[in-house]
Amino acid sequence: MRLVETKAPPEASPLEVRGVTAAYGSEPVLWDVSFRVPEGQLVAVVGPNGAGKTTLLKVVMGLMEPAAGRATVFGKPFSKARQLVGYVPQRGSVDWDFPTDALDVVQMGLYGRLGWFRRPGRKEREKAMECLEKVGMGGFAGRQISQLSGGQQQRIFLARALAQEARLYLTDEPFAGVDYKTEQAIVGLLRELKAAGGTVVVVHHDLATVPDYFDRVVILNRRLVAEGPVDEVFTRENVADAYGGAVSYLAGGE
Ligand code: ADP
User: Fold this and answer.
1) Mutate to test the pocket of ligand 1, among 29, 56, 64 (most ligand atoms within 8 A of CB)
2) Which residue's alpha carbon is at the smallest distance from atom 16 of ligand 1?
3) Which of 72, 80, 85, 237 is most buried when burial is the number of CB atoms within 10 A of its CB?
4) Splitting the chain (254 residues) into consecutive groups of 10 residues, what average pLDDT does each group show?
5) What residues line ligand 1, using a CB cutoff of 6 Å?
6) Is domain 15-93+167-243 annotated with CATH 3.40.630.30?
7) Where are the domains of the chain?
8) Which long-range contacts (C-beta less than 8 Å, at least 24 apart) are formed by 238-241?
């Protein structure tokens, strides 16, 4: 008799946060936060300044140990899944004293595959160039990264995440300080990543574009206010709950 597998094992979520409480010193900035991101979705994390959005990313990436709870990436701690994650840091958060050009930064995305001791060859350079061209930065390959604008640096990091062929992309305010055209270009890229089966989590500031850009939203103000599909949870009540009653944005156009 053959045993037939009747149930496929449940697919691990690209990102699962379970009961996370995190603090700098004694005051918690995240309080018992839990949610699960399904695969292939564009997800915004919103909340007022100081809501703990960046702290949440730090916990997810293992840069900060939570006081309680845990975060997993494809069912594993970040350290065991880092090759699956493409991270695009917040503009201005990277110290560019280190002299490196745009092509180098994109090639770094390939090191995880290559192993640290193999030098990138022609194939890798071609792949990196291809990714730079995809983000419209092909003409800047040899430019020192410190001599690029914030929006251009964002695109270089997106190119690196593309080169890496990550399955989960984490980006911290990719639209901060970029012009409209760049914002549309970045949104187009995020949609491409999704179309290729990727999951994209974006710390986002502009409430007005949430319904247009995202499938799901995590509304945070130290505790989780709501999480789910934009058309279900991005309501006036939930937004007001997170931001306080003074918010003038009318969610969902009600
Ligand atoms: P957000 O990204 O939503 O604006 P953060 O996660 O950056 O919020 O910050 C949450 C809270 O934690 C804020 O009150 C902030 O001042 C505080 N905080 C952030 N980083 C540190 C730190 N390194 N040391 C002490 N407090 C911090």
Assistant:
1) 29
2) 50
3) 85
4) 52 94 94 97 96 95 95 94 84 66 87 61 89 92 88 86 89 84 87 91 94 97 97 96 71 43
5) 24, 29, 47, 49-55
6) no
7) 15-93+167-243
8) 239/207
